[in-house]
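Subject: Protein record for review, amino acid sequence with backbone structure tokens
Concerning: The relation between a protein's sequence and the shape of its backbone.
How to read it: Take the token row as a discrete description of the fold.
Enclosed: The protein record, placed directly beneath this head.
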Amino acid sequence: MKTFKLLFSGLFFLLCTLSVKAQTSGVDFFAGEWSVLVKALPNGDTKMIFVLEKKDNTLTGAVLDTAGNEISKLDKIEINPTSVTVFFSAQGYDVNLVMNKKDENHVTGNMMGMFDAEGERVKAKK
């Protein structure tokens, strides 16, 4: 019985460690600036900049227009190892955008489950 408890405890700690590491990798990948093009919106295709900042192993940020003006702060961010969902308000509506990792510098996804989106990491200016 003692061996069973020890084995169960070890397995529990291993699972906790793996889930924390998976969350961190999603945070690390998505931190930064992303230029996202949302296609086929009622007013046409729209490009937005998502600025995601890493703070205490989570993300915070804002949505900017292409001129760099803030549209909205991000209300909530759900992080997964290969995707992130950001929630914000725009033009009086609560909106969400899902970004799925495509490769190291590109994402694909959708806004509100209806409009396709694709984006790329904004390279730091030297």
Remarks:
- DSSP finds one helix and eight strands in the chain.
